[in-house]
Design brief:
The chain has 230 residues and is mostly helical. It has 2 domains: 11-148, Ankyrin repeat-containing domain (Serine Threonine Protein Phosphatase 5, Tetratricopeptide repeat, Alpha Horseshoe); 178-229. The chain is 50% helix and 0% strand. This is Ankyrin repeat domain-containing protein 54.
Length: 230
């Protein structure tokens, strides 16, 4: 006489196996994959149980290989993140599996608010706080500021507007006198510039310019001396 067929497990049986026999849960799911997303009469699921009992491998298998929603809600509107008891599992849920840290339960509370209010698992509270804004709500801008040390990029330019950056050299403070420059250019443009008379006028013009510079320098030095005396 053949042995009786193995009864099909139900979600309640699998939930009871999670704390001590997670491998048995995976064996059952291999035969009955539809049970991976099943929930009991209170909405409790295998992802909730795997989170609560810190069964990391089972949790990853449920979400990655069986496609269970990491934000599956129970009858109180709570996702698995609400029942997390260790920082390692919290990190896995948020950073690996994409759990929604903003998810609110039926009372309008996020996971951080509830866990912190119950006074349990301070390491979980501290981790969730680092992933959240000051009001307990996850803030991508907060994370962005941490990554950029608070340095904000400039706002985008309006359409059809562009800025070309370059360097501008400032003219020297002691550049040539415009009047002297003009007189030199006028002299150089004359037909007799290369003649003895033109060259003599050029030497005279240069001599006048040198005397003027010397006089200005002497005046500046006297002024400085007077200021020191005063």
């Amino acid at each position: 006489m053949p042995p009786p067929p193995t009864p099909i497990p139900n979600i309640s049986v699998l939930l009871n196996l999670v704390p001590d026999r997670p491998s048995s849960v995976l064996q059952s799911l291999a035969q009955h994959p539809s049970l991976a997303s099943e929930q009991d009469e209170h909405g409790y699921s295998l992802v909730h149980a795997a989170t609560s009992y810190a069964q990391l491998d089972l949790l990853r298998e449920l979400v990655r290989n069986y496609g269970v929603d990491v934000n599956l809600r129970d009858e109180d509107g709570e996702t698995p993140l609400f029942v997390v008891e260790s920082e390692e599992i919290a990190r896995c849920l948020v950073e690996e599996l994409g759990a929604d840290i903003d998810a609110k339960n039926s009372e309008g509370m996020a996971a951080l608010e509830k866990i912190e209010g119950e006074g349990d698992y301070p390491e979980v509270v501290e981790y969730l706080r680092t992933r959240s804004g000051p009001d307990g709500i996850a803030s991508t801008s907060t994370l962005a500021e941490q990554q950029t040390n608070g340095v904000h990029p400039p706002p985008p330019l309006p359409p059809n507007v562009q800025i070309n950056l370059g360097t501008v050299q400032e003219p020297p403070e002691d550049g040539p006198d415009p009047e002297f420059r003009r007189r030199i250019e006028e002299l150089a443009a004359r037909d007799d510039f290369q003649s003895d008379q033109g060259q003599a006028q050029l030497r005279e013009l240069i001599t006048d310019a040198v005397r003027g510079v010397a006089a200005d320098a002497d005046g500046d030095s006297r002024g400085s001396a007077q200021r020191r005396v005063e």
